[in-house]
Amino acid sequence: MPFNTNDRLIILDQIQPADARFPNTLLRVIHSFGKDFSKDTDDRWSLTDSGLTAKHWSKIVAWAGNCRTAEIPHLNSRAAGLLLLLVSAAVARSLERDEPLWHMVVTSCSDDLRRAWFSNGNDYPASEIRDAVDDACRALAIRNQLDLQGKHRYWRTVQLQFGFSAKVGAARLPYWLAGYGVPETIKALLSDDDLNHSTEFRSLWKSLSTWNRDQSNAQAEGALLSNLWYPREDHELIKAGLMASRDSAVSTTSRRDDEEAINSVLGVPRFRAGAFQVGLAPVLPREVLEAPQPVLTLYVEDMGMTKLVRDKQGGRTLDGDTLSAQPEEVLDAPTRQVSVSGRAGVVFRERFSFWPPDADIVLFRGTAGRLIANLEGFVAEPGCPYTVVTAAAVDLSTGNSSPRDCEVRSRDWKLYSFPHGLPAGLEARIDSLCLWSPEHAVAKPTPPGFLLQARERSVTSLELTATAPRGWTVDRVRFAGQMFPENHSIVEVSPVSDYLKRKAQVYASQNGARNVFDVRTERVGNAAAGAVVEMEDGKWRPLRSDSLDSGELEGRRIAVRWQSSADDPWLTLGQNPVVRDPRLLRRQHLRALGETLELRFGLMNEAVDQRAALVSSVFSSGILADVTESAGLYRLKLRHAVEAAPDLRVWVWEDGGPGPRLLERAEVEAHSDQRTLSILDLSARAPLGWAVSLEGHWQGARFHLNPGTPGWPDMCSRWESTLTGSGDWPATAGALRWWRFPLLMEPFRSIVQARVRQNPVSTLLAWTGSNLTSEMAIGEAEAKFLLSPIRTFLWRYSPSKEDCRTFWTAQSRCVLGSFEAGRVAPPALLLLHSHPVLLARIIWEILSTHRTEEEAAVPVVMERNLFRRAQDPAQVRKIEQKYSQLSGIAADFVERSAGIFIPGKNTRDALREEALWDLRSWNDPSPLDTSYFREHVVRPAEALFDRQPCNANRLEIAVSRSRACCAYVVSHLLAARGVHDSQ
Fold first, then answer.
1. How far is it, in rounded angstroms, from Cα 378 to Cα 372?
2. Is the entire prediction scored with pTM above 0.90?
3. Beta 408-409 vs 413-418: how paired, if at all?
4. Which of 8, 162, 568, 625 is deepest in the core (most CB within 10 A)?
């Protein structure tokens, strides 16, 4: 809720930081605002809402840098906590990178202030002033995330005070607006269901999205400049950053794939007006945002279908705003399958839970029905409506009165409504023993000797043993929503939550008296290692270790555990990093062509002996889930119902064929279930595999037999003969590209490697060109699949002058046409991201060849002073200047194609700096060392370019990891090597 803050800030405008009255004046202004704000609303507010502008923030930093001991409030006072929050926000909003916040705050403080707030020389606030920050936030209803675990709760609380730094935002906003790597604090500010939501910030975000697409939109720009959350003093900086990304040849959504945010499509549920309601999440998944259809279908199991419509800002709105379900329906099944579909099928899927399946108590607050996330810190508000959901084993009672009857009951859950506030003496009980109460701490002091020991049998199975001190008998134990008798049991647990952070309730007796104690959990023995995937029924099963169809993982969560003591864990597909610290992930698509799914520790300096292979080969089959043969028919089973099933075209790759053959429409029958396609066995001779397409675009392909089945060895043998015996390798290579064939899967990898060595330039043309039929169109999404094969099979390929001429002849029209449009051509873009050294070598060879040819045509003249004949030096110098400029233009174009913008940096320096940040360890806030980058990335690139022997392993990883590094390598090589006579 906006307030007129001008009157409050006049005195702050007039007073200077050196004035001894400054800190008290600042505190009075902020404290007064907070009190006035809280009179009219129960929402939270941020320091930015008080109207502080850039000049005020600068004054706060100036005061901190010169603060004297006499000006510092008592360490554990609310004033000290508020001052620390103000100084931290003032420093953080000016940072240029994800620099360690507290170190930067320490650096900004005077010696006196540093000694007071950061004791013992630590770059972390003393416990007393951290408690003071807690007190200030809670007393004044300031936005915070102090209910989180760990040290990040203070950093996030600081971020919530101003949204984002202008200098960081200038480089990151395009990716955040596209749904990539959105900071958790921004998500909280955007979410209508989060206690930290901000209507003003959400308005800012919509204006930014609109203005990003059209910077001539004066109305959107005006809305930005009038918004309190917008750092208007750096407007031109943000404008330049958005423009650099928008005008780049690379879409913003192609950058830093390993950090893509897999957001939920649904937001936090509420209980209001007697029903459970849920709307869209504040930041939608990129698959939903990028789907080309203007209208998508959202399906929530047992809640029906509705439409997702593209709005004027380019986002999606839910037809009807929210989905609603009656309590009895949700209590019967609190976890639902969710999918978003277009005409070609499902684009996004997930499992959605109204609350954690192993919860005992769930609480919704007020008429708005917000979910209370932290019950431990909960304080009931008199007269405020509440709805309580409990597990079936839990009863609610009020003091000595009989238990209150629940309003709605299912087999596993019960729902209670309290429209006039929680009654006095309310307790949640199991077998007459108190489990939770909103009025007092339930847990009695636990006598020494009580412990729950957990031995991991697998990633999802625990053997639990409760121990008690002498004289006590363990009657039963409740843990993770499950009850087991006596003191020993084997239980299944979800790998989603850390069981070590959960307390158990141990029911014990002594001399006939029964008690319940909260008992900590301790692991004994080694941690279990492995990878499991969540199935549709909510159960978890291990990943197949031999081969895996990535379509089986779409929308499902994967949990990975390891025993290694090494740090910096990464999940990788071959050399390609997929995600960092992969304890739990959900990705919609793994773009895989047979790569090994591995767990690695470290990328640029890997602990190789700790590497663990999870799956030996991963491949992608799209919507084609299975193939069966019976009663003279081949049946293709689709992964889900497809609206356009009757329009799908079917392809078959037959034994010995150079590529797939498109079947006539009359040969294919689409079943009414929209999931099955039938083909007479007479229509296909000895099929090796099948594919389906829609309107010229690939939708799925798979082998005729599944890997691991009895006939698989024979199927591999037939594929080997077909690939080895192909008389038209360029056509076969192009077909393999379109098919998304698992080229890196054995035994096919060695066969393809041999064919590529024999035909490198024709393979390169087939994999970078678009010389296929109109029915086999290849777009940017399809091209991304070839990054790893090009890098694998052509890593040591250095094209000759003739090869480069052949490549240029085939691709020049496409390259020059894209250049005129201000974009990098798709073939060059594919090479840039897969093998930048090869791209640089091709550009160098083409320019050098043309220069040589032009110089050869220069007439010979008599040199005036030497009395000898030579080519006209003036024309030679003109040609040299021309090709030097062309080389510079090519380098500049590649640089700009990356869309990297860092304030105050030229493009090449910005690329190098961005690459150093991209290549850092995820748990290390500092960028990669410059000398290390030079030694292990730049020099191997130079050696590879010069056809010299080198160890290019880390270069390959760097190229896989960072698009900025790819562009920098090309730019550096063209500048360092220049354009010389072609060799």
1. 8
2. no
3. antiparallel
4. 162
